[in-house]
Amino acid sequence: MKIGLFGFGCVGQGLWKVLHETKGVKAEIGRICIKNAEKPRPLPAHFFTTNPDDILNDPDIDIVVELIDDAETAFRLVSAALKQGKSVVTANKKMIAHHLPELHALQQKTGASLLYEGACCASIPIIRNLEEYYDNDLLTSVEGIFNGTTNYILSKVFEENKTFDEALQLAQENGFAESDPRLDLEGFDPKYKLCILLLHAFGVFVEPEAVFHFGIHRLNAFDAEFARRRGGSLKLVARCYRQGDQVGAYCIPRFVPGNHRYASVRNEYNAVTLESAFSEQQVFVGKGAGDKPTGCAVLSDISALRYQYKYEYRKWQQNGSFFNTSDTELQLYVRYSTGASVADADFTEITERFMSGDTHYTIGRIPVRKLQRAAWLSDPRVSVVEIN
Amino acid sequence: MKIGLFGFGCVGQGLWKVLHETKGVKAEIGRICIKNAEKPRPLPAHFFTTNPDDILNDPDIDIVVELIDDAETAFRLVSAALKQGKSVVTANKKMIAHHLPELHALQQKTGASLLYEGACCASIPIIRNLEEYYDNDLLTSVEGIFNGTTNYILSKVFEENKTFDEALQLAQENGFAESDPRLDLEGFDPKYKLCILLLHAFGVFVEPEAVFHFGIHRLNAFDAEFARRRGGSLKLVARCYRQGDQVGAYCIPRFVPGNHRYASVRNEYNAVTLESAFSEQQVFVGKGAGDKPTGCAVLSDISALRYQYKYEYRKWQQNGSFFNTSDTELQLYVRYSTGASVADADFTEITERFMSGDTHYTIGRIPVRKLQRAAWLSDPRVSVVEIN
């Protein structure tokens, strides 16, 4: 098997190294397409090209591995490779989440395989398990800590008493933050993963725009202290679920008690919890960020291509479900400063109010539908946390 | 797909129910072979037979599901079914662990598929993941809490302050203890699972007799207090690992600190931790005992047979490793009563000694090779715990 590689950053270089270390996977990298020809590279020049066609049109290359940053360029390259009948491995969650219907159709049309395990929680084999192991319809929910960067930041805040600013800086120094930190902090990244899992868990195509998400960017020392006093910490949790034939999804910071299974999921580790009628809770924990864990998933995808593995999208084939989060009610802590106009009318029920100096909070139930439309949520003086 | 079922206990009945509830798996149970024809059954009489040949010789039956208690009878039935070219699903770990070489050879010879996900940690899809996802040779260890009954007992002791006797009784009342409780308590059951995982993780056939195991049957209130004072609890942990081309394995109670990932693995839940060069730690958590979690695994195996799935035993094919635990040293707490003659000479190093009244303990390092031969370990006044 000959691989054409797009991008030669950390993950790409790690992949090169491990392909030479492992006996199990008989595949070699034939050509590497890079953007910047001037950068010094650790391999001989003949491996590199700046022309994508040197990979796309090379009949000796069976597998295209796409590891570049830009989602739209990635989509063009991946589409072109599939159209050439080449198998593709990618870890680009933003690209996949925004183009799932097209990518699915392209696979159906060309018969080529597109694998993207590295796009969801890096080293955790969640897509493969949803495809292969949980392919009966007993699954009721998939949720978890899907973003390594925010989990790293929250761990530093709760376990090492760093401020949120210090923790973000540490994450950046350790290479965990994306080039655009908003993708992580505001919860876009876990939402992209949620969109991918919605298809493999429940068989529905959902646009990222349709899913409510709220990140950790507004959390402050008061919120952290609130969680500590309740005997726990905060985690950014993304969740999708089925009730009857309706499927819902959202992503929001959640209060987690100290003895909860997520409490020991620290730093860049991710966790995915599956609930099913028969096996109840199943939890997968593993590194969810960093070049090595992502490289590990990419390698396993390459390895699966030796056996012509492809996603069958069986849940989509069986599916009679539709996406509709709106009626779901969340029990929320809404913290705000004097002057921010949190709409009491959006609450179905209010159970607690607090005020001290400039800091207020309200605890109560709000339907996700109202959160999606709530103008007050865009006020930077407001933060929300799901509590139980 | 038509199923012939051997045994109609809890798991069998659960399987019947769920096959009628799920849309995903198009399979029906055609015939059920039972031992006792007199017992009242919840299904019409025409489903039942006491003659195995009514299943084995029925050409309409594609899949044999074996869910009986007795390991040797199970082996005969499973072998006969494979020889008839039928696919087989079983959850009988004792049978599999004792007959892996024959069962492997039978699959090679007949081309029939034998699946047994339910035999290892019930609902946790560990065999499938080792086969499919971790099939490169970067894996360095597989360990975890492989026995739901002992974990249930230890949870009751540490979280609800039950005595070991009360906790065992609770486990039996809740249906977690096997018909022979020694299999669980003395660590045979997790050792059987270890033998199965040794083949799928590292490609070696290992007889159960070759693996050192020690259960929780000797633990007492003093040992529990020792763990509590160190800020943690005790878990029965089975472990296999590779160092160079040598593979080792053992099963022993382990001290687990309060913030450890295993601390939140409670009651009948199991956990499996994989360590690999590239993805570091991966943890799978799920229910490891009970009819429903086992039924869930059996169902997923049946479902996989729709796609002619079989284990490839790739690690065995690539393998250059051999089994040799002997040089591995464990850091142990050895508790004993006056009169029990723990051999100091077996310790490579002793770091702590304690004596109070009739209770003594020694902490130090002992090679597994010496534990395997230590006569003093069979003294009922001695217990051991691995500590770090």
Please provide a written account of the structure:
The structure is a homodimer of 388-residue chains. Among the domains of chain A are: 2-127 and 293-318, Rossmann fold, CATH 3.40.50; 328-388, Alpha-Beta Plaits (2-Layer Sandwich), CATH 3.30.70. With 388 residues, chain A is an alpha/beta fold. In chain A, helix 6 packs across helix 7 (164-173). In chain A, strands 7, 8, 9, 10, 11, 12 and 13 form a seven-stranded mixed β-sheet that branches. Chain A contains 13 helices and 17 strands. The interface between A and B is large, with 50 and 50 residues.
Labels describing this entry:
homodimer, 388 residues, alpha/beta, Rossmann fold, Alpha-Beta Plaits, 6-stranded parallel β-sheet, 17 strands, 34% helix, globular
What oligomerization state is this entry in? Answer: homodimer
> What is the name of the CATH architecture of the domain at 2-127 and 293-318 in chain A?
3-Layer(aba) Sandwich
Number of DSSP strand runs of chain A: 17
Distance between the termini of chain A: 51 Å
Helix/strand order of chain A, N-terminal first: EHEEHEHEHEHEHHHHEHEEEEHHEEEEHE
Average pLDDT, all residues of chain A: 93
Strand content of chain A: 25-35%
Main sheet characteristics of chain A: 7 strands, mixed
User: Do you know the CATH topology of the domain at 2-127 and 293-318 in chain A?
Assistant: Rossmann fold
Secondary-structure class of chain A = alpha/beta
By CATH, the superfamily of the domain at 2-127 and 293-318 in chain A comes out as: NAD(P)-binding Rossmann-like Domain
Radius of gyration of chain A equals 22 Å
Helix content of chain A: 25-40%
Q: Could you say which overall geometry of chain A the principal axes of the C-alpha atoms support?
A: globular
- CATH class group of the domain at 2-127 and 293-318 in chain A: Alpha Beta
Largest interface: A-B, 50 and 50 residues
pLDDT < 50 stretches of chain A: none
What's the helix count of chain A?
Answer: 13
